[in-house]
Each structure stands twice: as C-alpha cells, then as structure tokens.
Amino acid sequence: MKQYRVGIIGATGMVGQRFATLLEKHPWFTVTALAASSRSAGKTYEEALAGRWKMSTPIPEKMKDMTVLDAEKDREKIAGSVDFVFCAVNLEKQKTKALEEAYARCECPVISNNSANRGVPDVPMIIPEINPEHAAVIETQRKRLGTKRGFIAVKSNCSIQSYVPAVTPLLDLNVTKVLACTYQALSGAGKTFKVWPEMVDNVIPYIGGEEGKSENEPMKVWGHVENGVIVNATKPDITTQCLRVPVSDGHMAAVFVSFEKKIPLEEIIARWENFSGEPQRLRLPSAPRQFLHYFREEDRPQTRLDRNLENGMAVSIGRLRPDSQYDVKFVSLSHNTLRGAAGGGVLMAELLCAKGYLD
Ligand SMILES: NC(=O)c1ccc[n+]([C@@H]2O[C@H](COP(=O)([O-])OP(=O)(O)OC[C@H]3O[C@@H](n4cnc5c(N)ncnc54)[C@H](OP(=O)(O)O)[C@@H]3O)[C@@H](O)[C@H]2O)c1
Questions:
Q1: So what's the pLDDT on residue 334?
Q2: For atom 31 of ligand 1, which residue has the closest CA?
Q3: For the CA of 36, the nearest atom of ligand 1
C-alpha cells in the first residue's frame, strides 16, 4: 500500500493527542507535521504539551522533538509538505470554516473532526460502515472550491456515534421515531477530572449545542446523494437529551425506537450481529472485525468494561426489550475519542485512500 505523509492540525488538544497515538505505528500514514495555535508554535511537541498530555500511553517517541507549527501562519508550508491533514481545533465556527477551506484550497485534503463544515451539502459526513457512498459529493465540492485534490470531509459529532450505528440496520423496518438520552464523558469536552474537578460526583444536564447536533446530524448521515450533493433524510423523527456524566471516556445512550409494524426482538439482534460495511469488506487497518456487538448479559455494556472493545472502534449494544410507549428500548455505547473522534477520522481517511480520493 502507498505511504501517505500526514499533518495533525490541533495536535496538542484532546483529539489531536489521540490522533498522535493512533498514527504512531500506522501502516499507511506517517505524521510529518504537527500544528496548533500560536501559543504552541515554535516549541517542540513535548514542550508544548508540558503538563497537559492526557493519553494513558507516553507521547510518541518520534513526535516528541518535532517542532509544532502555527496552523494559520505556516499553512502553505504544511499544505505543501503533506498528502492530507487531520484537523481538530477549538476555534469559533467561522474561523474553523475559513481555516479548513484555506487548507483545501491549497490542494491539501482535510479530514475534520470539527462541526463548522458539517452542514454544507457538498461536504460528506462519513461514518465509514454507514454512508461511504457520500464521498461522491467530493467532486462537486472540488468544483466549488476550484481545486484538483483539495476537499474537506467531516466526521459527525461524537454523541451520535453511540446510537446511529445501532439504529441504522433497522431503518428499512420503517422506523418512525427515536428518542435517545446520552450520558457523555468528560473527554468529549477535551477535559479530564484533574482539570474539571466540578465533575466529580456530579451530573451536568447541559452540553451547549449538543442536542441540536444529535438530532440533525443523523439526517445527513442517513441522507442520499442527488445531483452531486447530499439531500438529508426526513425520517425518522428524533428527539434527544444530552447529559455530561462523571466518566473519563465513553458515551452511553439510552435509546427508544418505534416501527410502523412490531418487529421480533431476535430479528433486531440478528440485524445488529450481521451488520458490516465497506471497512470490513476492504479490511481497512482500523476497522473493527465486528462493528456492532450485542451483549446478552443484563448488566452490559458498561462504560469501563466495554468502551475499548476492538480498540475502541466497535459499538456495544445491550438490554434490548419491549417498551410500553415506544416499541423497543436498548442501550448502546461507543468510545467518544476513538470511534467518536480520532479513530473514526483515521478510518474515514483509510476509506478515502482505498477509494483513491487522497492520491
Ligand atoms: N473530545 C472529543 O471527544 C471530540 C469528539 C468529536 C469532535 N471533537 C471536536 O474536535 C475539536 C477539538 O476538540 P478537542 O476536545 O481536542 O479540543 P481541545 O483539547 O481544547 O484542543 C484544541 C486544539 O485546538 C488548537 N487551537 C486552538 N486555537 C487554534 C488556532 N487559532 N489555530 C490552530 N489551532 C488552534 C489548540 O492548540 P493550543 O494547544 O496551541 O491552544 C489545541 O491543539 C473540536 O471542534 C471538537 O468539537 C471533539
């Protein structure tokens, strides 16, 4: 397989650090540029991270002495020295949009974890097992941006990765409505218990903007390509409530689903167990062997026990049972910084490489 040189924009953040650890030994991708804000620029990666490395494994040896570049001022230098970049920055929406478009216009594809471009109809928002065909809109986007190679592809919000994968194999059973309550980890806010002690022994019933993203983004993921852009799905109806809970990593969702007709529980479980997609067919390096795992034990999945299933790239489901107001209810769990952020970004990049979009 061809080797690709990659950059990480936002390399010092929670998601950027995850990218660094995931890419340390990647078979196709070699990190050749690390970038962040002007606060970190000019320091070595190790110096820039002093006192704020949040991963359980050490800073990758090969990256420690790399000089962190300024994502904005050094843009042309970075774009000219890599095949594409991963981007996860904490910046206001308009600035993030401008930053990502500027990289794309420099012919440097951007695999983004940020929300700024998620609503744009010619920017694909890909969960590789679910909607790989949405990559087709990249051609329309390239025309709009006036580029040959450059484009932006985005990952969805981490909250939806806990329940959209479980609902997707059921969609053709005519799902009419979905209610999802999410119980989201601190790392989803880029934080740990050390820097956010108020979260110890506490639940905060508000995550700014999260419920809107959780209700709207599934419609794009479940949409279809028409005339070169994505047309959002209009069904099922979704309502959500998103809570921050005292957990380091792993977003859990309590999900309720109704169908036009009643469906036997065993058929739902069979659909989960048999569901696979392009990443499994193409044997992409970061693909889980089995995307959806159903646990028959009544007290699973549990965040601490199950979030790292298949290197944090699988989704765990359990407690499927009838409900008195919806037809069925269940819980599902995904690792928010692995499947929900950096790992999902790496898998998307692998898919786009395999399909030739990053050549
Ligand atoms: N955490 C999750 O689970 C998760 C999941 C999905 C998506 N996301 C999204 O991923 C993005 C990053 O999240 P995070 O949790 O990693 O945030 P974070 O820990 O706060 O890190 C933010 C990063 O952005 C950089 N940055 C800030 N201003 C910049 C600028 N002007 N130019 C270039 N870089 C700049 C920071 O660099 P300095 O260190 O130099 O300040 C740092 O590297 C956000 O858009 C977030 O919504 C996060």
A1: 98
A2: 37
A3: 34
